[in-house]
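Q: Hi! New to this. If I give you a protein sequence and the SMILES for magnesium ion, can you show me the bound structure?
A: Yes, paste them in.
Q: Okay, here:
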Amino acid sequence: MHAIGTILRIKGLSVSFLVGRKRIDVLDNVNLELRKGEVLSLVGESGSGKSVLGISIIRLIPSNTSISGEIIYKGKNLLDLDKDSMRKIRGREIAWVPQNPDTMLNPTIRIGDQIGEVLVEHYGFTRKEAWETAIRILEDLGVNPPDERAKNYPHQLSGGMKQRALLAMGIAGKPNVLIVDEPTKGLDPIMKEILLESLKRIKNMKDSPAILLITHDLEFAEKLADTVAVMYCGQIIEVTKARRFFNSPLHPYSKLLLRALPSRELIPIPGKHPNIAKPPSGCRFRERCPYSKEKCMNEPLMFTLDGNKVKCWLYEHIRNSSDGIIKDNE
Ligand SMILES: Nc1ncnc2c1ncn2[C@@H]1O[C@H](COP(=O)(O)OP(=O)(O)O)[C@@H](O)[C@H]1O
Ligand SMILES: [Mg+2]
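A: Thanks. Here is the predicted structure of the protein with magnesium ion bound:
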């Protein structure tokens, strides 16, 4: 479902970590827009910077970080907010489900109470009201039986159920933006299906949050995404509507990513993802790219094509034209 209106706009975001005396530039000039009600899937190989983007948005970045650019939410640059203002945004306006559920779940508190926490803290619910609402949220996510699960402690839950508990915590405060980082990690196919169902239910809720779905699992992304953004070595190199992306993506890297899927050709991408601390000059993908040419020694511009974006010199001459799109078998 495509709704109009941008809810979150990331402009020129760069993030560096200071490790000892070394400065590691992890995100380089990231521009990205999340629209109301859409699922934007951020895909790319491990180590490309996806999680760093997620934690930068909610400002849970470690202290050894330097960050520049803008993250605009409701007209405000989140990077300008003090800790207290940011705390009010987290959970209530922008919620985040981390890559590792155990970092977020308190082992000594029942799931129902953990889900209701945001309601007690931000919305003045009593414990009892929050508990009842937590059960309803679990039910909305398709958890069965919701009241039994609410009574469980985290160690009593399967990996898939933990993820769904985190989603319930995420949506409890009715956020406008939900960031979900690698939700399928470690899940078997059945659990993935169940999790998919819960995420679809969130997507179809009235006033559903915009979802930033961070995943390296393209097959999972395909089932949910409205738009796909591809990250490679700290840069966004393609942003394309999902249907187009999964049929005929623009960037050579995206084409190879899709070809590598078990359900497709299972042809691995040649070479390795570069170490983000030492990115190649020019196009960061050029050493692995079958279309690489002299020009690729220079950093590509971001070209637009039918409203999609691609950072690749192949598109230099065909920008803004509807023909001249490179074919998959080229
Ligand atoms: N706190 C940190 N200090 C230094 N480097 C970090 C830190 N967090 C992440 N990195 C580095 O940033 C890069 C991108 O990491 P990450 O965003 O986790 O990738 P992805 O989520 O795409 O797998 C990695 O090379 C990682 O080692
Ligand atoms: Mg990650």
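A: Residues 17, 19, 24, 26, 44, 46-52, 62, 276 surround adenosine-5'-diphosphate (ligand 1) (CB under 6 Å). Let me know if you'd like me to explain how to read the tokens.
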